[in-house]
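On clarity, I found the account of how folds are encoded harder to follow than it need be. Since the whole study asks how a given chain folds, the encoding of that fold should be made plain. For illustration, here is how one protein appears when written out as sequence plus structure tokens:

:::
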Amino acid sequence: MVSGTHNPRPHSGPYGWFVIVLVTFMLLGGRDVVAKETRPDVLMIVVDDLNDWIQLLDPEAPIRTPNLQRLAERGMLFTKAYCASPACNPSRVATLTGLRPTTTGVYGNKSDWRKAMPDRKTIMQHFRVGGYRVIGAGKIFHHHLDGSFHDDDSFDEFEPMRPQLYPEKKLNDAPEYGSRNTDWGAWPEREEYSIDHHTATYCAEVLRTYDRKQPLFLACGIFKPHSPFFAPPEYHSLNADVPLPRKQMDLNLPTGARQLLKNKQWFWSGMMQLDERAPGSWHDFVKAYAACVAFADAQIGHVLDALDQSERGKNTIIVLWSDHGFHLGEKNHIEKFVLWEKTNHIPLIIVAPGLTEAGSVCTKPVDLMAISPTLLDLCNLPDEPEADGVSLRPLLEDPAADWNRPALMTYMPGNHAVRSERWRYIRYADGSEELYDHAQDPFEWNNLASDPQFARIIEQHRTWLPDQEAAQVSDLKKWKPTRGQVPK
């Protein structure tokens, strides 16, 4: 036997074979199991119709959003974030599937998205396949009040929206104007009767009690400030001093813009026929919207409180986004369904522990097509096939990183907007155009598209328009809002 230092075999000793088995397990099949156990949880909060007239995005804005600001202080706020489409269904479908309306043909609120894409996985399905427990509540897909666009395969568990409650008569004292579904005022008297209190309470309970056998993906859909513009009485006092927004119309509107507005002007025209001092006035409407924002912000606060009280709070990725913006009379328009800034500019906050710097701000233009690839990237799940967006990881790591992509928005076939850091360019199906310089004209009152000196700017933005557009898919059955009664 050769003398010298003896190196024992790896399996020598009473625990040798156990070590070999354990190491082999971790290097092979056990690797995925360990990875799943250490993956971060995800909390995705979706808000409906939340525009940019909030202090989160503008310290000079009148509508206070302390819980949104509290969330932004934990991670990164994107100050130039935009929806994929200024309507609920196409925006949510695009964000949750990673495919734009021009790819899928889902352009309108009645477009049957699942019939158009029977095999396309939603972001929630990707997380289910990746080993996550996916739980949802509230408004995630469009029109879940009657279930018509809900997708069962996207969730392991789901708590539907509580039916909308209506008072015995309209609250806005304008019986000839609008419908119950566009009413506004203090309602219901008790917060626990509301849709969003029910949703937030459910999500908070999930966060407090979830037994982490799997990583959790929780989708929380906040319905307000969507119409009807009801919020419990105490929230109306929080923004009682909100002023009217600046009202001025761009007199150089092209034919394409006028065509989009044609069947949307009833809301604004009817508002202007009301007595400004009457309870059904424009000012009361704006204050009711602000009350709904305050109410939504409070519900988000309840969910964040529950997250902070749970053990998983420090290892949870949080993303908050609104499906689109909302006009309150700017450019003589109310609601959405147009391609101007106010309708498409939305809040977007991402908190990624260990990656985002607390209180950081990114001013690069991004759109919601980035949500799905970003979350998959952050959670080490496989990329989506043929996604229309890219991960925001470079900006989350460095908000000043190179980013050569503008935001792109579409509303109905042929109508598109491109938002770069300075400019908003819009091209309509009839070929007419708009161009606004946000460095000089943040309210978009002066359309520069017909001025020859801006031809080069327009040409640069045209290169981002889609080369091909899918035909619009068929509509689902006519949807009617569900009416509920106040619980006894």
Residues 1-36, 479-488 have pLDDT under 50 and may be disordered. The chain has one domain: 38-423. DSSP finds 16 helices and 19 strands in the chain. The longest strand covers residues 41-47.
